[in-house]
Amino acid sequence: MKSNQTFLSLVVPMHNEQETISRFFEVVIPILNQVDDKWEIVSINDGSRDQTLAILKDIHARNSKIKIISLARN
User: Fold this and answer.
1) What global pTM score does this model have?
2) How far apart, in Å, are the Cα atoms of 12 and each of 1, 21, 57?
């Protein structure tokens, strides 16, 4: 039986993006909320050497719809 629930996953690779992460989520989350309330953002930390992972963890702590996959190297 098919579910009528829509689920949108946005997969976003990130590498040394500490300067742009906050703005990205400020713009994208309201758009996703307009499209559907069943969404997630899968953030791929692609071996960043700056504060990208720490910022992602902070954002995830505030919004469980933000998932993180962290790779050791690019």
Assistant:
1) 0.86
2) 31, 11, 15
